[in-house]
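Worked example 2:
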Amino acid sequence: MKRFLMVLAAVLITATAVQAQGGKYHGELYIGGGYGIGNTPASYLQAHTVHGAIFGNWFALSLGTGVDLYTNDFAKIKDVNEIKEGKMMVPVFADIKFYFPTRSKFDPFLMFDGGYTFEAKDLKNKGLMVNAGLGFKAGAFALSVGYHVQQLGKEKLDFANGAVQLRLGFSW
């Protein structure tokens, strides 16, 4: 827990420093989920927050963290207590978004997240995380669809065994 708080403090300090370089503060809070595909699929639920700066109306650079809760197959869960058998991963990542401003309140964007993740129970269980996709922002609400790959412990990072993800969030 101590390491997690230190990483969270570093994310917030870095986001403040980025903002001081000429950008306007940019933050997001979102929840989502992914359905695993490939030979060894892993489905998950997630809650993430990102903080950083937006430059002009088209480019945002942020740092983020959150929680990803993995299970073998969410479709088989009938009771919340069954989730405890999954892995809880804590990612720390850079979030890059390219917005395509329109004259309306509906702005599409491309996104890329890349970083490092570790298992909450065992900090030695760690690996890489990559996420890419597209979405739109309408006022304070954002919706995105992407492809998410995360190394789960000792498994190798395999782009053929990722998850299709859907996220809904708030942006300010």
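The mean pLDDT is 82. The domain at 2-171 is CATH 2.40.160.20 (Porin).
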